[in-house]
Predict the 3D structure of the following.
Amino acid sequence: MLNLDTHVLLHAVAGKLTAREERLLRAERWSISGIVLWEVARLAQLGRIELDLDDAEVSRVLSAVQVWPITVEIARASARLDVRVDPADELIAATSLVHNVPLITRDRKLLASRLVPLA
């Protein structure tokens, strides 16, 4: 199983993955932190993306994705990360750490982490 950050999920839905990302995502089940759903809704609300969580194709993709709730353990782990990024990305990274699920991201700061399991 892989934990996708918000932008990788958006690239997957849009069919704009790198060859490496496509290979990884084809071979594994997908999961996301619950905060990813909030980020997608907020980005759409702000007009930064043209994606609707009610769209049939988006709903189809999300129905196959494991959604990890934000727990006290994840909140604690986010405060112990060895990188500082925006709070949503910290929760996404902490989700990977707590559940020991590799994170797939393009974020350079997250990729520099020595704690977060990366794909």
Summary: The chain has one domain: 2-111. Strands lie at 2-4, 30-33, 66-68, 103-104. The chain has a mean pLDDT of 95.
